[in-house]
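FIELD: query
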Amino acid sequence: MQDSSAAPNLDFAGTTPYEDYVRADVLTHLQHPHTDDPGELAFLVTTQVMELWFTVIVHEWQTAAEALRGDELRTALDALKRSTYELQALNASWEPLAHLTPAQFNSYRAALGEGSGFQSAMYRRMEFLLGEKSASMLVPHRGAPRVHDELEKALHQPSLYDEVLHFLARRGEDIPRAVLTRDVTQRYEPSEVVEAAWVRVYSGDPDAPAARLGEALTEVAELVWRWRNDHLVATRRAMGSKAGTGGSAGVAWLEKRARKNVFPELWTARGHV
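FIELD: result
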């Protein structure tokens, strides 16, 4: 029987098992600020943390999509639920940046050059899974073959919402053939017939599989909307109406993004129940 009062083992032949698993030394040496401004490190680390959360969330949504393809609803719901906790953590990542004044941001903004979160490949994969497809979003990554290939593969795969609609169709819901056979490399466009299907789902048993799936997706959609709005507010506070670092319209572009609903028929259907 192990002595509970024994001190932890501190003597290892090489690196610690913790380091071997977490690679903390790698993570904590990935920061290379371009200025002497003390706030730049927080900006850099926060952005890197966001990238890690993007990676986890993409994994969860891919798991959910694959599970739905195999009619494994429980697995899909579990992955979607985990992703809501991860989205909450992702959204909380804005806190260190949410109170920057223009002067504070300007003190290291030039270090970004033409860099912009708009260019994040992992965030783009998140958007693709939500049905926000666009082949033009591959263009910035032509110089990184592995990243470009992964994005191109994601572009040609059904989105999470595509898999949801196929799942509903197999459950007997009237989903138009044009929706089920659509070109998945294109942005998903709302359908009145799909909206009607969600109206039927929400007018029925709230514990039915489709209704539980709808609510899980709604939780995800709301948190994505909050992410976009938190991004908008932080940017508006730090730089006002100036152009974005990557050449975008900055706040004006983020305002347009924030107005878009994720899984649109799940929201419009509620007005008909």
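FIELD: remark
Residues 209-239 form the longest helix (31 residues).
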